[in-house]
Amino acid sequence: MKHSGSKAKRNSRKRVFGGMTREYLEGGILGALLVLAVNFLFYRRWWVTFLLVPLGVYATRMYMKSRLENKKRQQRSEFREALNCLSVSLRAGYSVENAIRETAKDLANILGPEADMTREFSYIYSQLLVSVPVEVLLLDLAARSDSEDIESFAAVFAAAKKTGGSLVDIISRTARIISDKIDVEREIETSLAAKKYEQRIMSVMPCGIIIYMEAASPGFLDVMYTTTFGLLAMTGCLLVYAGAVYWGSKIVDIKV
User: Fold this and answer.
1) Cα(31)–Cα(203) distance, rounded to whole angstroms?
2) Sequence-distant (≥ 6) Cβ neighbours of residue 43 within 8 angstroms
3) What ranges do the domains of the chain cover?
4) Taking the C-alpha atoms of 110, 116, 119 and 120 in order, what is their torsion angle to the nearest 10 degrees?
5) Of 108, 120, 86, whose CA–CA distance to 15 is shortest?
6) What is the pLDDT of residues 148-195, one digit of tens each?
7) Pairwise CA distance, residues 196 & 245, whole Å
8) Residue 7 burial (CB count, 10 A)
């Protein structure tokens, strides 16, 4: 049984967090383009490109973090649907094993057969058929999801399974809590949408000004790229600009 649980963990990890190779490639390309753009706008020295590599790495990490957060947000929304379906099946009188089977079918119709939670619950049901405890599979999913909601649900579910608590009430309560959290996040996103858009525009304005000045008056900024004072001044401008972009993004990034 221990071996089966380990196998379940390895296989299901590929399903939940797999498929990120494309995101890594996209992040690497965006990081490289950022380095080239910063070098062109502020330095125009080929050797500076190597000094800006940490900036590209940081940009890639931030991109991956953003994509992972979006993935986890989508996963939590799918998990809410799964709990709703599971609660309905249990209230209809199905056993836990059959309820999970019906949940997998319902999720395939609601989210599609390729959705993470559809594949997860299909896999959980297949493992139940070989006598892997459902609480072990849910705890494994919670550990890999890195989601407080899923972790809390799995822990409470495991405790209730041992003590004979009401699984239907636990599932319904958890689904309601997750739904409330998602609704609050959507309200915050809606109220901050205009501010985030303004922040993005303000973030690209300095670069736009440099490009405009170069196009309108070719050679006007050459002194900033050919003298030591100019390079120091552009470095100072870059640091101030990077700090403004960083703090601007933090201001409009509100977590629930």
Assistant:
1) 17
2) 225, 231, 234
3) 2-251
4) -110
5) 120
6) 878 888 888 788 777 766 777 877 787 788 888 878 877 887 877 788
7) 12
8) 13
